[in-house]
Structure formats: C-alpha cells, structure tokens
Amino acid sequence: MKWVKSSFPLADSCEDKSLSRHPAESARGAYDASLLACPDCDLLQRLPPLPVGAMASCPRCQARLWRHKPDSLERTLALAIAAAILLLIANSVPMLGLSAAGQEASTTVIGGVLAMWQDGRQEVAMLVLLTALIAPALEIGSLLMVTLAVRWRPTPRWVGILLRGYEIFREWSMIEIMLLGVLVALIKIAELATVIPGLAIFVLGTLVFLLAAMAAVFDPRDAWARIDWVADRNPPPPPQGSP
Amino acid sequence: MTGKDISARSLGLAGCEACGLVSRLLAAADGRHCPRCGEHLHFRRPASIERCWALVVAALILYLPANLLPVLSTYTPFGAHTGTIMQGVIELWSPSSWPLAIVVFVASVTIPLGKLMALAYLLLTVQRGSVKSSRQRVRLYRMVKFIGRWSMLDVFVVTFVVALVQLKPLMWAEPGGGVIFFAGVVVLTMFAVNSFDPRLIWDLPQKDHDGRE
C-alpha cells in the first residue's frame, strides 16, 4: 500500500486561500470542502490526489485521514447483504450445546440475554443484547440503507443521520469479542460436561471477517459527498484532484 | 514541530466531527451547525477534560467491587463454587488453556486499569499544557480507543456460562454481583475515551497562540 503524507502547501499559501475569498462565502457562514482538519490533531491541510488504494496520513500525528477505495459503495453493499443474511442465520440456530448425565441443553445469543435477565442482572442482559445483537444489526442495516440510498440523486438528508449512527453502532458492535467470550465459556464448561459447538459459532466466525471487510471497504467521505446539504445552498464544485 | 503547522481552530475553522467538512464557526446560532450534515460544531469537544475526569474517577470506583465481588457461581454434584474474575483466570490456567487465561487476564484486569491510567496521564499532561511527546500521546490515545472494547470479554464469558449450564437440579450457574460493576467499568471507560478530545494534546498553552483568531 502506498502512503501519502497529506500536507499540501497549505501553510505557505493559507492567507491567500483563506475562506473569506471562497465563492461559498455567505453571510451565514463559510466552508471549504477541499480543506481537511485532522480529527486527532486539528492540523489544517488539503488531501493530495491519491492513486487507488493509497492512503493519506496526517503529517503531524500520522492519523489515517483517507484511503482511496475503488467501488467503495458497491462493495460495501455486497458485503452488507451477505452480513445481514449471516446475522439472521447466526441468531436462529443453536450456538452451544451441552450434555451431562443424559440431560441436554443448548443456547443462542438471545438465550444468553434471557438467562442473564432471569437471574436478575437486567442491566448486564441489556448490555449483552445491545453489543451482541442490536448494535451489529444496526451497523449492518445502516450501511445497507446508506449504500442503497446514495443511488438516488440527490441523496436525501436522512442518509446523513444513518452515517452518523453507523460510527456509533460500529463502536458498540462487539461480535468478535463475544465470540472469544463464547470460546472461553466453552473451555470453562468443558470441565463439567460435554460441550457441543453449534452451527452459529461458525457463522459468527465468518460474520466477524465480513464485518471487518465491510468497514475496510466503506468510504464515508464518498457517501458524504453525495448527500444533500442541510444548508440551502449548492455545494461548490469539487476542486481538481481532491476527493 | 515547525511553526508552519496551522490548526483549524487558529483560523476560526472547525472540522465537523460527523462528516469532516471544515467550515467557519460563527457566534451566530446557525453558524454553530455544520452546513452539510447539521451536526453541532465545536472547536474542541465541550467540557472534554471535566467529563473525562468524572468518568475516569467513576470507573475507578466501580473497578474495586468489579474485582472483589464474585462474578460467577457454579453448582455441580461436586459442590458449589463462587469466584471473582481473578479466581476465574486462575481456574482457567491449565497446561492446555493457559493462553486463554492470559487473554482473559489482560482483557479483564490489565486493559481496564491500563485504560484508566492512560486517560489520567493524558488528562494531566493536557492540563499542564505539556508540549512534549505529542505523537506518542496521540498514539496512546488511539491504542486505548482501539483496545478498550475488549474488556467486555468477561461479561460475555459469564453470560454464556450461565446460559448454557442450566441443568437443574444437576448443575447450574448463576451470575454474581460483580458482573454489574464490571459492565459499568467497561461502559464508563468507553464514554470516557469518547469524551476526551485528542486535539487538546496539540493545543499550545494560550500565550503561545499565534493570535490569528
């Protein structure tokens, strides 16, 4: 992968290019879609033109700013559809089974939540429900709707709300951690009884990789660039060589 | 770094935290929202240091019962057994499963404590106006944000042991009181990390500002 430091000669020429002379200036505010402020250090810069697959990083703090991903939205859509199907399967088949002295039991993700709820740990049950089921479902669902909705031109504003939500859902979606937790639980229980790994474990394992791939191919800048603006004005034409 | 580094704030500009658009932050009411996505604009996250400290201290208080109270009780024909997180790690330690014991120990004990210490260090250096090792500090912040979620591990372990071992009256498992505190530590530290604004690491003490605002 090619790494590009993003500092375009902003520091030298910033007075000339300051926003007051930008055509987008109005009495209500000003913006410049070609500028970028590093989210980790606030360094003002312009993204250089990037070849496909290359990544721009902040020259001051090395934060990853943008990666030029080919066909980002189409690939994301394909992965989101696959992930949605796997999530459905993973929650409808047994995840773990157990047999001891002629008795058998099995459980799913929901089963774990219910067991916690019935044992009087409702707060923990809700946290598990959120991180193992709701957040992953919203993570997949929001990207699915975003990638479908950007096909409309102009793209409606509510897509922006989904995009904002996606970042939050992604942070609280913890399928990979749950899977490791299931593995540890399995080994703990194996001392007591015979454990039977269910189909859902393997489906979830695949889903972890799909979700990682989905996050890797998705380019939020691409999606944001298509969305209708909240303020009533047309976005300026994109400057050459800039995303 | 060189004096040519210009922060967006020094020009009165703010990058939107939702969509990334850089726009001028005005005092007027409608100048405080991003023209593209409508998100509330700010130079730095509001009350970042105060909120982060409050959450760090609260998480530190919950960390004690989380580790001292039992998280899991199992009832088997061989007798009842109740254990804390640390006892769970020790039980997992065997010739075949010791790598998992290390993973659980790191995720449940080291990560939450390390996260709180790292945040306290970042907060203290920002409050002192330190300009040293900013790159290392922002890397520390990114690592804390990336790794912190993994402390949820033990909550899932307890959940699925309890869900599966339900063969009453032969054997069954129950969650202990420590689980709630432990889940609280995880949630509070995640909020704490998000309330800290890494851009504060790079802000120079006020007197050194180049006065362009």
Spell out the blueprint of helices and strands.
The complex is a heterodimer of chains A (243) and B (213).
Chain A: E1 3-5, H1 10-13, E2 31-32, E3 35-37, E4 44-46, E5 55-57, E6 64-67, H2 72-90, E7 96-100, E8 103-107, H3 109-118, H4 122-149, H5 158-172, H6 175-190, E9 194-197, H7 199-217, H8 220-226
Parallel strand pairs in A: 1-5
Antiparallel strand pairs in A: 3-4, 5-6, 7-8, 7-9
Helix pairs in contact in A: 2-4, 2-7, 3-4, 4-5, 6-7
Chain B: E1 13-15, E2 22-24, H1 48-68, E3 72-76, E4 79-83, H2 85-92, H3 98-127, H4 134-147, H5 153-164, E5 166-167, E6 171-175, H6 178-195
Helix pairs in contact in B: 1-3, 1-6, 2-3, 3-4, 3-6
What does this structure look like?
- The complex is a heterodimer of chains A (243) and B (213).
- Chain A has 243 residues and is of the alpha+beta class.
- Chain A is built from 8 helices and 9 strands.
- Chain A has helices spanning 10-13, 72-90, 109-118, 122-149, 158-172, 175-190, 199-217, 220-226; strands at 3-5, 31-32, 35-37, 44-46, 55-57, 64-67, 96-100, 103-107, 194-197.
- A 3-stranded mixed sheet of chain A has the order 1-5-6, with no helix packed on it. In chain A, strands 8-7-9 form a 3-stranded antiparallel sheet. A two-stranded antiparallel ribbon of chain A has the order 3-4.
- In chain A, a hairpin with a 6-residue loop joins strand 3 and strand 4.
- Residues 11-28 and 239-243 of chain A have low confidence and may be disordered.
- Chain B is α+β, with helices and mostly antiparallel strands and 213 residues long.
- Chain B has helices spanning 48-68, 85-92, 98-127, 134-147, 153-164, 178-195; strands at 13-15, 22-24, 72-76, 79-83, 166-167, 171-175.
- Chain B has a 4-stranded antiparallel sheet with strand order 4-3-6-5. In chain B, strands 1-2 form a two-stranded antiparallel sheet.
- Chain B is 48% helix and 11% strand.
- The longest helix of chain B has 30 residues, at 98-127.
- Classes of the chains: A alpha+beta (243), B alpha+beta (213).
- At the A-B interface, helix 1, strand 2, strand 3, strand 7 and strand 8 of A face strand 1, strand 2, helix 2, helix 3 and helix 4 of B.
